Amino acid sequence: MLNNILVVATSAAGKELVSKANELAAHTVLVSACPELTGADVVYTVAHEDSIAARLDAIAAVAAELKPELVLCEGGLGGRLVAGYVAAAMKTCPLPEALSVKVGDGCAEITRMVYGGSAIKTESTPLPAVVVVGAGAFGCEDNLRSSEAKELPAVEIKGMELVGIKESAGSQMNLPGAKKVIGCGRGLSSADNLPTVEKLASIMGAEIGCTRPAAEDEGWFEKNRYIGVSGVMIKPNVYFAIGVSGQVQHMVGVDQSGVIFALDKNENAPIFEEADYCLVGNSNTALSAIVEKLS
Q1: Do residues 188 and 243 touch, judged by C-beta distance below 8 A?
Q2: Residue 81, SS3?
Q3: What is the pLDDT of residues 169-195, one digit of tens each?
Q4: Bridge partners of residue 103, in order along the sequence
Q5: Distances from the Cα of 255 to the Cαs of 133, 234, 236, in angstroms?
Q6: Buried b or exposed e, range 96-126, using 16+ CB within 10 angstroms
Q7: Cα separation of 82 and 68, whole Å?
Q8: How confident is the model at residue 49 (pLDDT cuts 50, 70, 90)?
């Protein structure tokens, strides 16, 4: 077991990083931009009106005092920024988008996807190490600890001035932690079917995600709902794919699902080879029938 691990999280999904840190280390410290996120031995909270980017020197100062053998950073722009900055201060290089993390024999070993998700690469580096963890990579065990709250040192980063913060216009959701997820692809056919998808999600108690084309090409969903190689990795108990063809770039993001249901009009869709239950049908008619039955 390690002596110290530092976790830097920017959202509630960072709970799984804290859980993993508690599994690996005797003492854990969390720097959090999410006030409700706790569970480490010591928690430094970045104020809502502040920016984690403007507190890089402060986070580096915490790392310098703690001397952690491992730093775990949540994925996303903020997490990657912190990882690069802290790694440079610790004279090491960050390991990106880890799907798993192991420590032993003075090294940290991670796995991550390469070649568009068609292969898994294993990398290792001597401790201390800085690792950026992909969304949904870890589960969340019931091992959270009582936390001591501390104030993050007011060390301003030189050469950077915070001029303001604007809330994201996207809706709030937690795909990595969802137990049920509905994923929509281009086979949804039309934005007119979105209200039916939302009703189905309400009935199931599910989060809604999508493929990259459904978000970026069709514009039916916000980009933060994209599931796949450069999006979110999920581990739900149930994944219901609607109009998702099943290309590898998407499937690597859902292959750890417990049960996969698939609805697609193409009986030869690749997703049917991966799904546990398959329904060949048109989204325009099949979705309404499914909602009626489940209601």
Answers
A1: yes
A2: helix
A3: 655 677 877 899 999 999 998 899 999
A4: 108
A5: 18, 8, 10
A6: bbbbebebeeeebbbbbbeeebeeeeeeebe
A7: 15
A8: low
Q: How far is CA 32 from the centre of its chain?
A: 15
pLDDT tens digit string along 227-269? 987 778 888 999 999 999 998 889 988 988 999 999 999 999 9
Structure tokens at 161: 């001035």
Q: For residues 58 and 152, is the Cβ–Cβ distance under 8 A? A: yes
- Is the CB of residue 33 less than 8 Å from the CB of residue 46? yes
Tokens of 127: 């401790």
Integer-rounded Cα Rg, in Å, for the chain is 21
How far the first Cα of the chain sits from its last, in Å, is 50
Q: What is the SS3 assignment for 275?
A: coil
Please report, for residues 34, 60, 74, 83, the alpha-carbon distance to residue 97 in angstroms, rounded to integers and kept in the order given.
21, 21, 9, 11
Q: How far apart are CA 19 and CA 143, in angstroms?
A: 6
Tell me which H or E stretch contains 286.
Answer: helix 283-294
Structure tokens at 83: 């990882």
- How many C-beta neighbours within 10 Å does residue 218 have? 16
- Classify residue 77 as exposed, middle or buried by CB count within 10 Å of its CB (0-12, 13-18, 19+): exposed
Measure the CA–CA gap between 216 and 107, rounded to whole angstroms: 39
The residue assigned the tokens 């020197």 is: 57
Q: Which residues have a Cβ under 8 Å from the Cβ of 115 and sit 6 or more positions away?
A: none
- Nearest of 218, 220, 216, 190 to residue 208 by alpha carbon: 220
* Mean pLDDT lowest among 11-20, 153-162, 179-188: 153-162
Three-state SS string over 154-209 comes to: CCCCCCCCCCCCCCCCCCCCCCCCCCEEEEECHHHCCHHHHHHHHHHHHHHCCEEE
